[in-house]
Amino acid sequence: MSAITRDEVAHLARLSRLALADAELEHYAAQLDVIIGAVARVAEVATDEIPPSSHALPLTNVYRPDEARPSLTPQEALAAAPAVQDDRFRVPRILGEEA
Question: Which residues form a coiled coil (predicted)?
Fold first, then answer.
């Protein structure tokens, strides 16, 4: 039996604002089932003696320290902007929804 159903894929598509055909829903449900199975196999690996890590190699912070220094004024930052509104960059609406 599939770990993820066609209805769950349809729900995820709706949340992601993706329009998927019925054939795509079936296809992605099968693919996601394979992915979930692979993740489950990884979870089965014996890792009791391996300490958790966020990276394979030990790393140290290589960033410079935060220091306050002069920056652009709002007028300087907006000087080359193609459109400005209320001292902000004006960009086209992408979702077509009310703010």
Answer: none
What are 28-70's pLDDT values in tens digits? 999 998 998 898 898 888 778 888 777 888 878 778 888 999 9
Q: Of 26, 31, 32, 34, nearest to 7 (Cα)? A: 26
- Count Cβ atoms within 10 A of the Cβ of residue 39 and give its class: 0-12 exposed, 13-18 middle, 19 or more buried: exposed
Angle, helices 22-43/6-15, rounded to nearest 10 degrees? 100
Class of the CATH-defined domain 6-43? mainly alpha
Contact between residue 25 and residue 9 where contact means Cβ atoms under 8 Å apart: yes
